Amino acid sequence: MENRTARLTLLIDPEKKRIFEEICAAQDLTPSQVVRKLIRDYILDNAGNRALPAWLAEQRAKGTGSGSGAN
Hints:
The two termini are about 20 Å apart. About 0% of the residues are buried. The protein has three helices and no strands. The longest helix is centred in the middle third of the chain and has 16 residues, at about 30-45. It has one domain (about 15-65). The protein is mainly alpha-helical.
């Protein structure tokens, strides 16, 4: 499983942040859960031939990136 110890800081305008947080809450998800999924899907869709950790390579083999329609 992935290790969740790294921090990613980004700047976003307050209105987008508010809307994002409202949508996350409506779906009973935390913003962190949604961002982690977005990053996983982005990696799977764009990694090309890069070596990936086993837990992520398994998802690639199953075709669970956003481009697969199997989210």
